[in-house]
């Protein structure tokens, strides 16, 4: 068994015995067959001595049990690693960052505590998956929509805490940004509620996020400071209709203005759905991976020869038919001056969806959870199959034409130089408004030699991106230290302040040690090694 | 996992032609003792393994067996309880293992009972969640 550094076998056994008394022995897992299910199935360290492994897993059923488990761990300095549903595949799954941690599996805490049709909000426990919530809303006749990420089996709470994103209207796509109200158990075992949840009797916990004073919600994003046991979210009242459309332009030089206009229209609330910027002419080889952007003359020649657009801006609209048709008409008017511009209404759908609609729609655009996305990777394009999973590289880049071109060229050039395969490459993902996120999916294999190369290459690319001012917003555990290293302004003050907060709130360093590069004091020197 | 839009737009091009030919005709009610297992299948397996297009498990098994056995797990008649338990608890390829907090041992036994029962006792295919919800009345489940 992998044990945490500095923890004696006796203290571990004693702690586990107390935890058995708290949650019941059937919810304490310390045998190899069970621990195998808590490994990161897409780990880039799979089967190597450095693979991050749990020493045990504990599955409490309620807040009080969480508090008792945390107190038992704190008394003995047993490291805990909370997971909601453990389905953060491509970013670490259920495995801890510090080997030997006890995974605190919150899947059994799966109650939908409240859905408020008037406020358009909900309050849920961490074990509630998108599938669970979708079923709950539909079965109760709710008029509210969820915003879902691609895989629907994840936790609403867990996905939001790792800053996941979805596909519907702007206020809901950034899942952490759409949360309103957090309840968390601190390392002391005390319970904190953020925002209006701190005011006894307030009915506004899911209405006003800030409360009074410094807004503490951010303490729990990608953090090592608490076990989140409840979270509120704002939900999207079902619109009357959905329209998706695109604007195609035919010259390399059109990109800057295309993005500038798209920004103005989104920030001016002329459209509310998720936009996109892609390049049909550069997606001929692989429709889900943009090729290297060539020099302007070459790209314009490719456009001329193929007849395919240089760039495509896609727009989507949710609302009453009259309103969204007028919005689309206005959008077209703003692009009418581009030479050779083409407008395309891709689909119009009246809501609610019918059974027939389900056969043709992209479900996440309608807030419907599914797992269809895995087909793109597991049986998709390219010749990397059969692979054993994937990791994500997700860097925040400037939301401009220049941002797309530079990020595309740097990533394509460096990945080619380093021999790093990408099966999906999208330089301008817009789940979060106000920035682009460059997404690249890297296939992983249960092969130490290939994974060693992958780790070295990705670490080098993290550094190269940092030199350009691009930082990852989220990453698998193997890269968390490197990514946090890149956020180095003023002598790494971001990490130093995070460490000071860590020391104050969790002096024994028991919670999520090492998550996103923040280590407790006793492990800081070796960074958990 | 985050993906982007072209992927979803083009995914139908990946749909299996031959999977449909391998689907069994499955109609009628499920035997009462198999209903819990069918529900486990619907929740945990169908999202990737149902007999439909764009589903990773079904596409992968079609690629692996080239039609020698049905690509949709629900139509297989060659599975045994130990084989089902092995894949549920250990995963394979891109499919991760499932924990006992997700699929309990009792759920796994029910799932095995469903997937090893004669086809005629299994009844109609378990629906995908979206399809099941789409036919609910707007006021919710009566």
TrEMBL record, chain A:
<dbReference type="InterPro" id="IPR016171">
    <property type="entry name" value="Vanillyl_alc_oxidase_C-sub2"/>
</dbReference>
<dbReference type="InterPro" id="IPR036318">
    <property type="entry name" value="FAD-bd_PCMH-like_sf"/>
</dbReference>
<dbReference type="InterPro" id="IPR006094">
    <property type="entry name" value="Oxid_FAD_bind_N"/>
</dbReference>
<feature type="domain" description="FAD-binding PCMH-type">
    <location>
        <begin position="50"/>
        <end position="238"/>
    </location>
</feature>
<dbReference type="Pfam" id="PF01565">
    <property type="entry name" value="FAD_binding_4"/>
</dbReference>
<keyword id="KW-0285">Flavoprotein</keyword>
<dbReference type="InterPro" id="IPR016164">
    <property type="entry name" value="FAD-linked_Oxase-like_C"/>
</dbReference>
<dbReference type="InterPro" id="IPR016170">
    <property type="entry name" value="Cytok_DH_C_sf"/>
</dbReference>
<dbReference type="InterPro" id="IPR016166">
    <property type="entry name" value="FAD-bd_PCMH"/>
</dbReference>
<protein>
    <submittedName>
        <fullName>FAD-binding oxidoreductase</fullName>
    </submittedName>
</protein>
<dbReference type="InterPro" id="IPR016167">
    <property type="entry name" value="FAD-bd_PCMH_sub1"/>
</dbReference>
<dbReference type="InterPro" id="IPR016169">
    <property type="entry name" value="FAD-bd_PCMH_sub2"/>
</dbReference>
<keyword id="KW-0274">FAD</keyword>
TrEMBL record, chain B:
<keyword id="KW-0479">Metal-binding</keyword>
<dbReference type="InterPro" id="IPR036909">
    <property type="entry name" value="Cyt_c-like_dom_sf"/>
</dbReference>
<protein>
    <submittedName>
        <fullName>C-type cytochrome</fullName>
    </submittedName>
</protein>
<dbReference type="Pfam" id="PF13442">
    <property type="entry name" value="Cytochrome_CBB3"/>
</dbReference>
<feature type="domain" description="Cytochrome c">
    <location>
        <begin position="32"/>
        <end position="119"/>
    </location>
</feature>
<keyword id="KW-0349">Heme</keyword>
<feature type="signal peptide">
    <location>
        <begin position="1"/>
        <end position="21"/>
    </location>
</feature>
<dbReference type="InterPro" id="IPR009056">
    <property type="entry name" value="Cyt_c-like_dom"/>
</dbReference>
<keyword id="KW-0408">Iron</keyword>
<keyword id="KW-0732">Signal</keyword>
